[in-house]
Amino acid sequence: MSWLVTGGAGYIGSHVVRALGDVGIPAVVVDNLSTGHRRFVRDDVPYVDGDILDTDLLERTMREHDVHGVIHLAGFKAAGVSVDVPLVAYTQNVTGTVSVLEAMQRVGAGSMVFSSSAACYGATDVDLVTEALTPAPESPYGETKLIGEWLMRDQATATGLKHTSLRYFNVVGSGAEDLFDDSAHNLFPLIFNALLEGRTPKIYGDDYPTPDGTCVRDYVHVADLAAAHAVAARHLENGEPLEPVYNLGSGSGSSVQEIMDAVREVSGIDFEPEVIPRRPGDPPRIVADGKLAARDLDWRMRHDLHDMVESAWTSRQYAAGLDA
Q: CA 221 to CA 295: how far, in whole Å?
């Protein structure tokens, strides 16, 4: 019995595949490599090059590898860009999820862990975001993730699907030097790339009502996140009940200035970030309460901010060596 990981060649997905292996759950990967890397998937893990919109391919893969559950990570994830290309976001994230669920129904795969997002909440005005907060997404991306949760809920009513959604906040770091984040939209790669190209990293505003004036965000280590997926899969596989939604957050958060300070220390590159005007709509603080996940998914922050930056920097250096 295997678990299918859609998007398993991506930054987060590849960590999830390795976390499954660590607890003895066989995995098979489907990925079209639009943002992933084939080398992220180890040779002993079955890999299928394909798109989640291809329902027949998903069905064949599930039958061939005796898939009983799916961890669904594949999709379009750039929240800001989704405003300009909403149809792309909806096709990949909504139509794509329908395709995955359809293939699961055809083969009788009855469990699903869904990669959701803090973008479901939108810009909040609370100090600590809990799962009880009413979702109010402010981008097509956030809307598509919320719709994905609804699709699973309705499929559970119709077919008995066992499911849970994990709402991520800011995922950083690396669990292995050969797995790195190269997204053009994420903070750590943006800082690293600026430094390596001789540019000055930027901070958007330092006059927020926070301890150092810069925005506070919730950063979690990708290896901790991946481990929670594996625990969720095991619970569903064993028929143990889970909540429909869990936040995966730190409960405390870090400021952008703290991130910059940690990067300066770890990299050994002496720099002073350039402070430029605020971006419209950036809230001062977004931090999640992860107590439910701690109770049910063994969720905990096993890595501090220094670990996050150091592991991310190490993997970035490894990636630079591959490109040299």
A: 19
Instruction: Name which of 288, 276, 54 is nearest 171 in CA terms.
Output: 288
Q: Which residues are catalytic?
A: 141
254-255 and 216-217 as β-strands: parallel, antiparallel, unpaired? antiparallel
Residue 72: enclosing H or E segment and its boundaries? strand 67-72
C-alpha Rg value of the chain to the nearest Å: 19
pLDDT along the chain (324 residues), means of 10: 97 98 97 96 97 98 98 92 94 98 98 96 87 94 97 98 95 96 89 93 94 94 98 97 96 94 96 90 86 97 95 89 62
Break the chain into its structural domains and give their ranges: 2-171+219-248, 174-217+250-323
CATH number for the region 174-217+250-323 comes to 3.90.25.10
Query: What is this structure's pTM?
Result: 0.95
The topology under which CATH files domain 2-171+219-248 is Rossmann fold (3.40.50)
